[in-house]
Backbone:
């Protein structure tokens, strides 16, 4: 063992530093990607589960009339419940826009089910009106702190409250993915806000409702009052956010209060939390119940983007590890060829083949251990900054030291290093000792055959010699080109994924949001609203929607009744045909997967307490609720007013211009807001993938330069002879550049198709995970793909020039004596 350790130590001290550094870097990069991805995937779930326990395990949130909720409290499936809590719906001004809010009184207690958790500041003082604890996620997004004053509108009346703290509430997922935001006030403040206002009459026009002085113009929509029993309060705004974001099914929207503000909620802890979905399906059919939100659905909505991002990042780390395997194999070959005389001397004094291979393997594993440790530390430090969707509500998570991830990464990287080192080591110890000690040059592969082939090409001396040096070392050249090919593939994956995300944002129909503005009438007669929409400048069409919690068997999901002209609901149909008539339905891809449905199937569901028999005529791209959504015609629910009207702009219009035109047309009594997207979180995702791809490319180019340098050193004597017979410095550089360009060209030609294939597989995995379904991947532009080949060849040529620069300027006499 001591002999093996001495051999490994001598290799670390006297070996090629460039190849050793390349080994450490690729091991560190691969470990960083794997550890960061796994940490991002897991850390969010652990934090959400901790908050869930601290909040008293809110397994079920039920919305309805106070009388119905009091009856539901007696359900034997409930282990404990919070008191029935009335709430008001409001629109809160945040910056230049407004969002829907639910205002409730504060219920606290160490064992209270579903209690909000204070994050900053203090609770409102008892009996003091005008104070509010703000939703933590919305406060972070808007930069609101304790002491700030916020404006809101309740029932058409403006009010101003002072923020005294922020809190996290788990009755719904977090803003901006879900609305309404939650505000908590003292009972005195709630009573002051609850003063009723006369509802608009059916024959009133939208423009006859002037707002009181100082009322902020709302830009998000409350849901209209007067919903039928068992209708699900919608998720305030059909969220047009980034892929994976969406309002959870059954989440109540603003304005859904019944007459006199009699809407309330009940939070329950179940005897068996695993039965949350079944209990929700049963409770949701009771009279007076407007919606049910089980905790598993809320948890999934909170974590979906983190899980997809983490899994993709970890998968990309494995991709990097593949590049590491080729780099390590190439650097191991280069190191061993540079030490061939040392290995022969060790064999001549009694070292066995096993001892030599074990020593060389130990050397590689020690270098890998340094890289794994550095990568584990980097991945652990980076993971909190890569958190998507939770930072606003829960804050940036702290460092999670996971020794198991270190051990797992070490095992994974160690296996790759061992496999990449053993074969070159075995080949090195099989070289005849007498030839190596006699300074015989390493044997090339069929040099005579290579020479004849090059003679046919009629190349210049520099190009001929450069290509010959690559072709006579096929093993080393293949490993070097393979590492660079994987880097090219990584760049293709990163650029393609970015293009896919950009198109998802630019074409919202791909995420299930084929509209530009949202209108919520807040009780105005539907005929009045639709007549106003038809005469709005810049409006190309509209459709209405009504959300309901729906059951199929003992499982619940969100369904949506679509009204208006079917041609104006321009959903992206992926298979089958659009929704046209009553009795038909289209489903999101996630719903098809969940229930094993196919286009053409007939299903019987219950939307609230209304039984429906529907034939699935197509499936479409949808990211809300990860695609677990069913749509049918509004004629299936006669007499029920829509939750919202979704309006499309003309070809040259913008969401902002359309929203402004709608506000002018409809007046201040109706809430309108433009469709927006929030790609910031996905920007973190794409930035991480781009960064990893760039680093892999940089390491692979460094590995190429190191391999070319090693080859040039091996051929130093031959270069000296060529210089002696007339080879110039420029020709010496040109031959190395030719070899590098040849390797770069081969890498690009191999890496492009591999990258496109991996890009398709990885992107489809992400798109299926968010519910949009496979087949929406947007490959990099043809111009970029075409430019990749000459760019990689030029990069290889530049690496070759750098590798041969020093030797090209060495005197011929010194090169002939080069050791």
Residues:
């Amino acid at each position: 063992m001591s002999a093996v350790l001495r051999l490994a130590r001598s290799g670390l001290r006297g070996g090629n530093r460039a190849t050793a550094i390349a080994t450490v870097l690729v091991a560190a990069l691969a470990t960083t990607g794997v550890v960061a991805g796994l940490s991002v995937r897991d850390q969010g779930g652990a934090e959400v589960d901790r908050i869930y326990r601290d909040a008293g395990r809110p397994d079920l949130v039920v919305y309805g009339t106070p009388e119905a909720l009091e009856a539901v409290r007696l359900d034997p499936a409930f282990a404990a419940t919070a008191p029935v809590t009335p709430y008001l719906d409001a629109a809160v001004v945040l910056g230049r826009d407004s969002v829907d809010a639910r205002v409730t009184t504060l219920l606290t207690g160490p064992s209270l089910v579903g209690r909000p958790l204070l994050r900053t500041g203090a609770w409102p003082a008892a009996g003091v009106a005008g104070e509010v604890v703000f939703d933590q996620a919305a406060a972070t997004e808007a930069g609101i702190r304790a002491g700030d004053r916020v404006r809101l509108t309740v029932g058409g009346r403006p009010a101003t409250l002072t923020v005294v703290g922020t809190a996290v509430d788990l009755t719904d997922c977090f803003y901006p993915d879900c609305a309404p935001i939650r505000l908590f006030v003292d009972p005195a403040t709630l009573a002051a806000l609850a003063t009723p206002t006369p509802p608009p009459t059916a024959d009133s026009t939208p423009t006859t409702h002037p707002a009181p002085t100082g009322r902020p113009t709302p830009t998000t929509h409350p849901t209209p009052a007067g919903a039928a029993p068992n209708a699900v309060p919608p998720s305030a705004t059909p969220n047009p956010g980034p892929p994976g974001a969406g309002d959870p099914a059954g989440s109540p929207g603003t304005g859904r209060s019944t007459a006199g503000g009699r809407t309330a909620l009940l939070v329950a802890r179940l005897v068996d939390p695993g039965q949350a979905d079944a209990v929700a399906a049963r409770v949701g059919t009771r009279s007076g119940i407007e919606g049910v939100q089980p905790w598993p659905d809320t948890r999934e909505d909170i974590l979906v983007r983190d899980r997809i991002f983490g899994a993709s990042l970890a998968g990309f780390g494995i991709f990097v590890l593949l590049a590491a395997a080729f780099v390590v194999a190439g650097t191991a070959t280069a190191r061993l060829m540079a030490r061939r005389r040392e290995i022969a001397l060790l064999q001549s004094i009694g070292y066995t083949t096993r001892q030599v291979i074990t020593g060389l393997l130990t050397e590689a594993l020690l270098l890998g251990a340094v890289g794994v440790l550095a990568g584990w530390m980097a991945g652990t430090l980076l993971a909190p900054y890569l958190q998507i969707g939770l930072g606003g509500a829960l804050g940036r998570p702290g460092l999670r030291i996971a020794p198991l991830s270190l051990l797992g990464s070490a095992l994974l990287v160690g296996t790759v290093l061992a496999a990449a080192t053993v074969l070159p080591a075995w080949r090195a110890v099989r070289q005849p000792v007498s030839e190596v000690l006699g300074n015989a040059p390493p044997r090339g592969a069929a040099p005579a055959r290579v020479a004849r082939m090059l003679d046919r090409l009629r190349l210049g001396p520099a190009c001929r010699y450069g290509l010959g040096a690559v072709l006579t070392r096929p093993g080393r050249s293949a490993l070097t080109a393979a590492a660079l090919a994987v880097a090219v593939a990584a760049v293709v994956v990163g650029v393609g994924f970015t293009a896919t995300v950009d198109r998802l944002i630019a074409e919202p129909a791909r995420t299930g949001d084929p509209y530009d503005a949202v209108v919520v009438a807040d009780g105005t007669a539907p005929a009045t609203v639709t007549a106003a929409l038809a005469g709005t400048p810049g409006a190309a069409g509209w459709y209405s929607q009504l959300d309901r919690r729906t059951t199929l068997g003992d499982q619940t999901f969100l369904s949506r009744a679509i009204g208006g002209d079917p041609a104006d609901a321009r959903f992206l149909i992926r298979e089958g045909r659009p929704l046209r008539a009553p009795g038909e339905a289209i489903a999101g891809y996630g719903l098809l997967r969940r229930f094993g449905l196919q286009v053409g199937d007939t299903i019987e569901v219950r939307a609230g307490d209304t039984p429906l028999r529907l034939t699935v005529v197509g499936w479409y791209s949808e990211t809300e609720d990860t695609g677990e959504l069913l749509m049918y015609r509004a004629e299936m629910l006669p007499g029920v007013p829509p939750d919202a009207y979704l309006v499309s702009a003309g070809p040259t219009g913008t969401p902002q211009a359309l929203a402004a035109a709608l506000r002018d047309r409809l007046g201040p009594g109706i809430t309108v807001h433009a469709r927006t997207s929030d790609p910031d979180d996905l920007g973190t995702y794409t930035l991480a993938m781009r960064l990893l791809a760039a680093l892999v490319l940089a390491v692979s180019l460094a590995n190429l330069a190191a391999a070319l340098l090693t080859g040039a050193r091996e051929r130093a004597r031959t270069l000296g002879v060529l210089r002696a017979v007339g080879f110039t410095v420029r020709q010496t550089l040109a031959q190395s550049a030719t070899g590098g360009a040849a390797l770069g060209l081969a890498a690009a030609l191999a890496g492009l198709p591999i990258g496109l294939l991996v890009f398709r597989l990885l992107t489809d995995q992400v798109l299926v995970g968010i519910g949009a379904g496979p087949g929406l991947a947007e490959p990099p532009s043809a111009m970029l793909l075409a430019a990749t080949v000459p760019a990689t060849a030029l990069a290889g040529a530049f690496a070759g020039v750098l590798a041969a620069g020093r030797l090209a300027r060495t005197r011929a006499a010194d090169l002939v004596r080069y050791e």
Notes: The longest strand covers residues 539-552. The two ends are 30 Å apart (CA to CA). DSSP finds 23 helices and 21 strands in the chain.
